[in-house]
Each structure stands twice: as structure tokens, then as C-alpha cells.
Request: fold
Amino acid sequence: MTAESVETRAERKERTRRAILDAALDLTEDGTLSTLSLRQVAKQVGIVPTAFYRHFASVDEVGLALVDESFASLRALLREVRQGPVDGAAQIVDRSIDTLVAHVHRHRAHFRFIARERAAGPLAVRMAIRHEIELCERELATDLALLPGTAAWSSDDLRVLSGLIVTSMVSTAEALLGAEGRPEAEQQVVRTARTQLRMLLIGALNWHSRT
Amino acid sequence: MTAESVETRAERKERTRRAILDAALDLTEDGTLSTLSLRQVAKQVGIVPTAFYRHFASVDEVGLALVDESFASLRALLREVRQGPVDGAAQIVDRSIDTLVAHVHRHRAHFRFIARERAAGPLAVRMAIRHEIELCERELATDLALLPGTAAWSSDDLRVLSGLIVTSMVSTAEALLGAEGRPEAEQQVVRTARTQLRMLLIGALNWHSRT
DNA sequence: ACTTTGAGTGAACAGCCGTACACTCAAACC
DNA sequence: GGTTTGAGTGTACGGCTGTTCACTCAAAGT
Reply:
């Protein structure tokens, strides 16, 4: 029988590649990308150090791949929030934060990775992350332009507000990671985030460009 | 004659200690504390590796000392801003941001260090930084309580607002570091920060606790 | 069936790492 | 003036690092 060769060659390669990414994600939980050694990764994956080069030219490239992955899932999250109904402001706030919390739970390792490397990673990785966050800000700004009340806003002011919101959400995500596994601390973070977003929204509603 | 022994023993030790801290600050410009090796530091200072232990038990302890230093100067900054006159809101915003910009220029290395290690440093260092930032938030909250218009605010809401402001200032500082040496980019960051703080202020002025 | 391809192997290398240990020798102390 | 102290020295060690090179050997291509 030789039951249908269960794994094609490309599949096996892809599986190893995934294993490398997962190992890197796991091993950066303590330490940075720059402290992550190729040999540690290889050992955890179960391959010999030199086999690593069949998949990536350096550890930094693994970092860039992880940035792509992380923001791919984050963009999926944002799309999800965005296509929801535009009901009251309070509902938008609550729904956004609930979605963020769920996503941080689901992709904790990715968020931790981004939070760390955003400030401390290799230059190329830092630049990639900064670029992705800027894309998020831009997308949010175009969405905000569609909201009632922002008709008279300058595009600069829209970008400023979206920057403010993104910054607040990033720091909320970081706080959630810090509250790991302590439900009451996490609830506190969620309450704070809700109030923060509402304050921001009130500021926005009373804002008039060109004052 | 033997002209007054120019350096006492304790002075010399202190000078070496400073040299170690400066070297660490300089060498972390590329890489993190965890990638910083005791041997690199020793070489830059001009001492043999083992002499390092006369001053610090580990690289992490150097990190903690640097956290102390950084926030000592930051607290001086905050005191300076705080004791200024309480004129119009716009003046407070402008003065705060100008002071921040000046301070980031003066202590760029320290700010870079904090920005990096806040997310990526050793656990003890991360905790120390988080604690210091929390102190800043608390002090700001008590100052905000003295401002007109916040009389009816709950203490929770005061903390939330001060958290929002601190977060915004931290991200402004990070943006300033990113705009290193490009004056037009830096001016853009300053303009954005001003608008952000004003939006926050408007949100605060229209806020009513317990809604 | 024969050839090519390429993921994974295994030994070897030069270099850096932290740290242990025994030491010097001048300032500080009594 | 003799003794103690302690910052800085020099050597040596085992362990981990990235990268090289020549290799196997089964799947894929022809």
C-alpha cells in the first residue's frame, strides 16, 4: 500500500519553517531577538544548526517574517472591528476593546514579540514594525473621516487623533501582557482602557480644526 | 611638594564607576542590555574584565543604576515644569512639550536606554522602569487634582487621565528619538504632540465623572 | 531507470563569553 | 613605620557562538 506518501517535500520544508518560527517566538519570551541564537533555535526545532540556513539567511530574517505574521493577524482583527455596525460611540469603544483583549489572548506570543522588538529589535525589524503601525494609523484615519462629526476636520488632525488612539491601544495591549494570568488586574486594565478611549472620544467630539 | 595627591581613593573608584555607566550607556546604543557584554564594557573603560566586579555584581545591576540615574534627571524635569506658573492651558501644553524636547536632547542616551529596556530589558530592570513610570503617573494625578475643573473627578478618573498623558508623552519622547538629527521631522513631532495634548485637554475639560 | 535537487548531517574552526583564582602595589589606617 | 585594604592585573578554563565545508540520501524531474 505505502499509504499515499503522507508528506510531500515542499510540505515538509514548510513544516520545518513553521517550527523555526514557533521556536523563535517561544525562545524570545525570555530575551530579545538579538539574544536569540541560531543554535538554540535549531536545537529546539530538532535540526542541526547548519540546516537553519536552508530556510533563513539570518536570525534577523526570522524576525521580519514574524513581523509579517503578527501584523497579518492584527490586520484581520482591524478588518473585523471595522466592518461591524456603526452604532453608538460607547458600543464602538466596548467592541473595540473586547476584540483587542480576545486577540491579545489568542496571539499573546506575537504581541509580546512586537512589543519587545518595536523598541529593542534590529534596525530592519524596528523599521518594519514602525511601518506597519503607521499603516494602521493611516487606515484608522480614513475610517475616522467617515464618522459623523469629523467632516470639518483637517487631514492632519485626523492623523493626530488616530495616532493618539493607536498609541493608547498599543499601551493597552502592553498592559494586558503585563497582567498575564491575573484576571482582576486584567479587568482593571480593561476598565482603564475603556475610560481612556471615552475621554479621547469626548475630546474629539468637542474638537474644532483650525482653532 | 608632591602637589596635594590629586585624587583620593574613593574619588578614583567613583570615576571608574561613572566610566562603566557611561560605557554601558554608549554601548547599548546598538543592542540591548542583554547583548551588552561585561568584556566590551571593560575594554571601553580601559580596565581588565575581572575588575568590573569591584563595582557591580552583574550587568543587570548596571542597568538598575542607569534606571535610577535616568529617572532622577526626569524627576528634576517634572519638578521644573510643575513649579512653573499656572497660566492658560495652551501655555501649560507648550511649556511642557518644550521642556520635554530640551530634556530629550540633553539626555538622549538615557532616554534611548529607557525606551529600549522598558520593553526588552531583564525582568528586574523592566519592573524598576514600570515602577518609576507609575510614580510619575501618580505625581501627575495629584497635580491634576489641583487644577480648576477637576474638583468633581473621581480619583480613578484622575489616574486614567494622567496615564493617558504620560503614555502620550512617552510616545512623544520615543518619536523624538526616532527623529534624531532631522529638524523638520522633529518639528512635525512637536506639532503633533501639541495637538494631541490639546485634544486630551479638551476631552478632560468636557469630562464628567460617574457618567 | 537514471539524474538532479535540496533538506538535513556532522565535524571542525576561530572568536567571544562569564568567571575563578592568585597576584600586585599604592593609598588609607593605626 | 608597619599593616591592612581593595582597585586593578593576568592567566586560564569550559562553554556557547556563527559559519565553513564536504557529505548523505530520498523525493522530484526527465
User: Anything to note?
Assistant: Chain B has two domains: 1-56, 58-205. Chain B touches chain A through 35 residues (CB under 8 Å). The first helix of chain B runs from residue 9 to 27. Chain B has a mean pLDDT of 92.
